[in-house]
Amino acid sequence: MTQFQLTKKNLSKFIYIIFLFFGLSFISFSQTKGTPSQKELLNKKNKLNDDIKQLNSQLSRTKANKKSQINTIVVINTKIKVREELIGTINSELAQINTNIKKSVIEIDALKASLDKLKNEYAKMIYFAQRNQDSYTKIMFLFSSGNFNQAYMRIKYFQQYAAFRKKQANEIVATQLVLGTKLQELEAQRHEKNVLLGNEKEEKTLLDGEKQQQEIVLSELQQQEKELKEELEKKKRDAENLQLAIHKLIEAEIKRKAEESVKIAAAKAAKAAKAEKNKTAKTKTNTKTNIKTPEAKVVTPELTEEAEALGADFASSRGKLPWPVIKGVICQPYGEYEHPAIKGFMMNNNGVEICANKGTQARSVFEGEVTSIAISPTGGKLIIIRHGEYLSVYSNIDEVYVKQGDKVTIKQTIGTILDEDGKTSMNLQIWKGQKTMDPSGWLFNGR
User: pTM above the 0.85 mark?
Assistant: First the structure.
């Protein structure tokens, strides 16, 4: 009976090791929870590589145009930022793989320890079985029982011992299979790590080359600082005129909506006054009634229920709006920023500049109504679409496919983006009333 009890003790140790194995897996999962998954990192990396390809296409066109050195430096700077983000993503992948490798090593060590214990136990069982393998010894062991019940228990012991030995053999085979799989996974993880290290090295080399290219272009631009400042001042004035034009159009739209609200309020008041007058006439009282139509003092437009619902839907879509292009890269940010070519020269943007490939079409970021189409002071045309209390503005549009008053759907094509000096870009703005908002916080990070 001693041998059977020893085996049960070792089995409990084996179960403990299995619990330890799964415990380590759970701890590892808890530590990595909240961090991007391998699939998410891969998707991000693919998107960044697409952005770099697109910027390379822009760069080849701006380089060919001698007038577009300013555009060239903008594209180079954007590409450097994207490349740095790509390297950061690769580093995140490497950190995740290193964590997975450590986890695999711990799991493999636990499996090896478990396998060694199972093999040692099985060897003892084989040794015990060989010592007691002849039938005479087994019969004598049964006949030496003190009573029938003890003999029955000894028969059950032989049966259980045989079954447990078979189970131990199966567990050894199963553990070896799991161990083999884990070793293959570890080998694959180490190979993937080596590939990523090679990618990281290659990306860093490309980044160094781009930074050198940036210095060359900046040096050339600085030699023409006077002419460049004049050109930038003109661009700045054009941009300010664009903002003024957009502001006026939005003001006019708000005023139009306010006037509509006044008319609606006045009509309601007149209707109410008429109803009250009729009611007074029916009662035939001698009381002199003086009904005055209340003056409608509306400063901001009252939205219809449909417009309010649309505005609420738009607000709830923050961070989930589709991009106004199928493929594009933000090459100039929202707000005030220093121009990359001249130190201290500040530019301001009420939206974001999105660089795209030649021939790219612009599309609506949400359903709504086209309220304005106008000539843009910076070139091309601009389109304003109302989404309840929100408005989206698309400027630097070449050919327009919609007209004022049109109802548009989400992702509907509204025009083509203007290509100028080898650079294809559009400006996207989002307004709430007369206040601008940063569009980058509204757009979905993945198209």
Answer: no
